[in-house]
Amino acid sequence: MKRRVRIRGQVQGVGFRPFVWTLARELGLRGRVLNDAEGVLVFVGGEGVEDFVARVGGEAPPLARVDAVEVSDWDGDLQEGFEIAASGGPGAETRVVPDAATCPACLDEIRGDGRRAGYAFTNCTHCGPRFTIIRGLPYDRARTSMADFGMCNACRAEYEDPGDRRFHAQPIACPDCGPTVWFEGEGDAAGVILSGGIVAVKGLGGFHLVCDATNAGAVELLRERKRRPAKPLALMGTEEMVARFAQVSGAEWSLLREAAAPIVLLTKGEALPEGLAPGQSRLGWMLPYTPLHHLLIDAVGRPLVMTSGNLSGEPQVIGNAEARETLGGFVDGFLMHDREIVRRLDDSVERVTPQGPMVLRRARGRVPGTLPLPDGFADAPQVLAMGGQMKAAICLTKNGQALLGHHLGELDEALTWEAYQGALEDYRDLFDHTPEIVAVDLHEGYRATQAGEAMSLPVERVQHHHAHLASVMGENGWPRAGGPVAGIVLDGLGLGRDGTIWGGEVLLGDYRDFERVAHLAPAPLPGGDHASREPWRNLLVRLDQAGLGARAEALLAGYPVDVVRQAVAAGVNAPLSSSAGRLFDAMSAALGLCVERQSYEGEAAMRLEAMAERAGMVAPYPFGQDGAVIDPAPMFAVWAEGDEAPEVAAARFHEGLVAAFAASARALVETGRAEAVALSGGVMQNALLQAALMRHLGDVPVLLHHGVPANDGGLALGQALVAAARQI
Amino acid sequence: LAHGGGGKAMRDLIESVFTDVFEPDGMEDQARLTAEALAVPGARLAMTTDSFVVTPVEFPGGDIGKLAVCGTVNDLAVGGATPLYLSAAFIIEEGTEIALLRRIVATMRDEADKAGVRIVTGDTKVVGRGSADQVFITTTGVGVIAPGVELKAGNVRPGDVAIVNGVLGDHGACILAARGDMALSSDLVSDCAGLGHLMAAVQAACPNVRAARDCTRGGLASALNEIAEAAGVAVEIEEDALPLRAEVKGTCEILGLDPLYLANEGRLVLFVPEDEAEAALAAMRSVPEGEGATVIGRAKPAPAGQVTMRTLFGGARIVDMLVGEQLPRIC
Ligand SMILES: [Fe+3]
Ligand SMILES: [Mg+2]
Ligand SMILES: [Zn+2]
Ligand SMILES: [Zn+2]
User: Fold this and answer.
1) β-sheet with A401-404: strand ranges across
2) B304 CB near a chain A CB, below 8 Å?
3) Which terminus of chain B, N or C, has less C-beta within 10 A?
4) Are the Cβ atoms of B328 and A575 closer than 8 angstroms?
């Protein structure tokens, strides 16, 4: 009774081998376990082998993800006992797992009176820092920022004991040997926060700016100092606090409690200052995910604002000296520590929709995670996909897997650009990747496209919305030979094949190619990118198109309406676009929700969604449908004639848009031209819209985003799949 | 003005409109020029050519003729040359008013006198209606670079200071307003000016001036990118140091344009070592075209070839070379 057992998945660096060791010894088996390039390999013999095989997949440690357990008969030699063998062959231990929130066992130790009582860097193989501290591979302590701290004897004993929770826990530490934390400022961090001050706290993937979330004055002060007038601020609270200040569903609790500890958008509960998220019905909450956070929030006893510590538009600060220099003017103190943050990672942002969880920003706790490529991609070449301009993230494919990188940000920002270039190297090294093809967007003005074109590799150019469509197909494992899919891609702006700007599309396609079946009636974008920041411009052109020029003038008194109209007529910086995002902006402006300027990306649309949520079921506004063109002009006409409450108008707008797009996509399935409908594009982050689409699509199979962002953060996955499909 | 026709009437017309104004003593088909300046050991001949098209051909602060003289004079001047001679070739649309041509030619003569250059040869062609837009002008300029003068973008070193000679974007914004199809209320006047005297003053005051570039098409952004690329340095400018008129900012805001990319016709950016910055500013301010001279940033060691702007909020935004038509990118 001897077996060779191969375990695939996220099984390295998560305590899998000691788990196997413990299980084998419990069952009285002989053999050995080792890591290699493909995962974990076990050679095992003895009476309980079948038991072992049955349990090894299901009882895996918390951070493991078992994709496959492959068992075969085996006839080699086994020594007595069971041992953890050295890693086998090159490429072993190449997998890096995401950072994980402090586990219950570690939390008990911190709150207990053992040697790690109150210690801010307590961790074990089931929790703690990973991706944020790794300098190189293979993953061992010498190649992390824990290399700066020599292990004490007590820690070493735990580290070397396969029966200990800290066996080979590379960041293992205790107060005798590990990193230390200190406060730079008057008194202590909790005191400063309780008295209304702002503290910069060094976290796992970067610095946060922290204040008392119940103190309206402190929130205002933070906004003022950070010059961030309205963008929602993220919050951190204990489970008790979250339960009190938010309405949390079971699915939302599960998401909050995941090891990734993302920010989850939750409906407001007991009142907190309106200034935390003006005009929004939800607040972003996360649970404390490092021991330092637990200790801080226990000391303050109130929910904390936890917004990224940066200058407006710049990425989060990660170095101590850099923090003092950059954030010195904003804060009343620094909660510092001396464990270097090797890799900047923002907090992930997610929400729960009736259709399940949806990632909005994919970063800490979610990366680096691989996704299996769908069937038919086994022979895919190694692709490097460069992503977009605004929520840049790259994607690599290799060995039937895709590695979608973390959210980096906007590439015109100099530090983000530097981080992007660093990430290209970083992920290549982590994945031992040698790109054969580079995939880029059609837009030559994206820095990512320019960088890809400059690589002297074969280039595949992928239309923006085709990439969005392919990303949701790929996330759902749609096979390469799976037949055409009708993609409803509602987005901001992406360059179309015809040289105009697209963004409200029904595409019929597979991974290789697509046709544009329907789209919003194009409207000019007066002022180019300025139209994406200033909703009134979109309202003006849409009302003018609907023959409601006088209404536009009345609504937009004081705006330079004449000049913008003349610029449109003269063709000065007014490219045509079928963007759905800009139509949301127009409607938001029509209802006076966000007119002059969006103070953060998506503000107008988010306010419109929040407004529409207040209404019940409503009749749709009529959208025109003329061949391939879905025309919002009739709906503006009906809106202009009526005098409905803004929540009703907002909801009727959602319904009308949904009805038009769903009908178009559904017809493709019902006539046998498509086998399923897929929803993607940044506008799909609107849960109300997604739910309405699901309702209108009825029993048609629908592919939705869950773990891959519907926005440009997921673009690179689609680019990679399209490029790969064209090569196979 | 009629198309074709090579007869005497046409020749008389050309003489009266063009030749007599540029060289009253008569022009040969070829210019015959003394080469004294070139006889100086180490002196070099500088030569440049440029074609000018602009709508409208007359605008506040100048016309196409002024552009054609200043543009070529400036190309010579920023390379460290003393401009001496120009040639001018005209492509004229049939039906263009003689009076307009006379006005353009008069400005050219005026500007040439101001710049101390002579227009010594030229050509005219009349083409059918619609084959040109009133008038296109090509000028070629010749100048001399004195021994030891070595101005080039590749000379710029980290730490060098970047100076512009005045408010930016006036020309580009003025032309937009002068098109007349948009109700841009504007008192803007083109910045079009010859910069030969300014360059001479700077070179006299700053022996180590590294490089200068005129900020014409593609604006300051393109000039800085060329320099950063050629010198293998980074250039960082400060948003709050950029000299911009409120009207230019306003026009850009409405139309969604970036003033860094607006064309200028009398603006240059100069790089000097830090210890010569004060002298350069003083020298520039001593001539009318440099009254608004101001420091806008400096060169840094890395990343090579990258131009960034420190924004009012403290972040740093990358300022790229203009690639074709700027399409919106915000998704
Ligand atoms: Fe997009
Ligand atoms: Mg030139
Ligand atoms: Zn733990
Ligand atoms: Zn220790």
Assistant:
1) A370-372, A401-404, A395-398, A383-385, A437-441, A459-462
2) no
3) N
4) yes
Residue A527's nearest CA partner among B244, B251, B311, B186 is B251
Interface of B with A in 160-179 (CB under 8 A): 176, 179
Residue range(s) occupied by CATH 3.90.650.10 in chain B? 153-318
CATH number of A2-84: 3.30.70.100
Are B161 and B233 in contact, with CB atoms under 8 Å apart?
A: no
From A580, which residue of chain B is nearest by alpha-carbon distance? B331
Tell me, yes or no, if B328 comes closer than 8 A to chain A by beta carbon.
yes
Cross-strand partners of B8: none
* Distance between B290 CA and the closest CA of chain A, angstroms: 31
Subunit contact B326:A447, Cβ cutoff 8 A:
no
Domain limits, chain A? 2-84, 96-178, 181-347, 376-476+706-728, 518-703
A35 is an active site residue: yes
C-alpha span between A415 and A394 (Å, rounded)? 16
At the top level of CATH, which class does the domain A181-347 belong to? alpha beta
For the ranges B86-95, B131-140, B307-316, the lowest mean pLDDT is seen at B307-316
The CATH code belonging to domain A518-703 is 3.30.420.40
Looking at the partner chain, which of A388, A413, A495 has a beta carbon nearest the beta carbon of B315? Answer: A413
| CATH assignment, B8-145 | 3.30.1330.10
Q: How far is the first Cα of chain A from the last one, in angstroms, to the nearest whole number?
A: 42
Average pLDDT value for chain A: 95
- The residue in chain B having the minimum alpha-carbon distance to the alpha carbon of residue A528 is B328
Distance of CA A25 to CAs A21, A80, A81, A164, Å? 6, 11, 8, 14
Closest residue to A446, CB basis, from B256, B257, B329:
B329
Distance A383 CA to ligand 1 centre (A): 20
Q: Could you confirm whether A257 is annotated as catalytic?
A: no
Active-site residue, selected from the candidate residues A4, A6, A30, A35:
A35
Instruction: Please say if the pLDDT value at position B300 is more than 70.
Output: yes
Cα nearest neighbour of B183 on chain A? A563
Tokens describing residue A421: 């270039």
Task: Please check the confidence at residue A296 and state whether its pLDDT lies above 80.
Answer: yes
Is there a contact between B328 and A491 if contact means CB atoms under 8 Å apart? Answer: no
| Residues of A with Cβ-Cβ distance to B308 under 8 angstroms | 414
For tokens 């974007």, the residue is B169
What is the CATH class of B153-318? alpha beta
* pLDDT tens profile A171-180: 999 999 999 9
- Give the pLDDT band of residue B37 (cuts 50, 70, 90): confident
Give the mean pLDDT of A408-415: 95
CB contact under 8 A, A492 and B331: yes
The pLDDT tens digits of the residues spanning A230-262 come to: 899 999 999 999 999 999 999 999 999 999 999
List Cβ<8 Å contacts ≥24 apart for B57-60. Answer: B57/B100, B57/B104, B57/B133, B57/B134, B57/B135, B58/B100, B58/B103, B58/B104, B59/B174, B59/B175, B59/B178, B59/B190, B60/B174, B60/B178, B60/B188, B60/B189, B60/B190
Distance from CA of A361 to the nearest CA of B (A): 15
CB contact under 8 A, A412 and B318: yes
Q: What is the CATH number of domain A96-178?
A: 3.90.870.30
CA distances from A58 to A5, A20, A260, A591, A725 (A): 14, 12, 20, 53, 34
pLDDT, tens digit (0-9, with 9 covering 90-100), for B228-256: 999 999 999 999 999 999 999 999 999 99
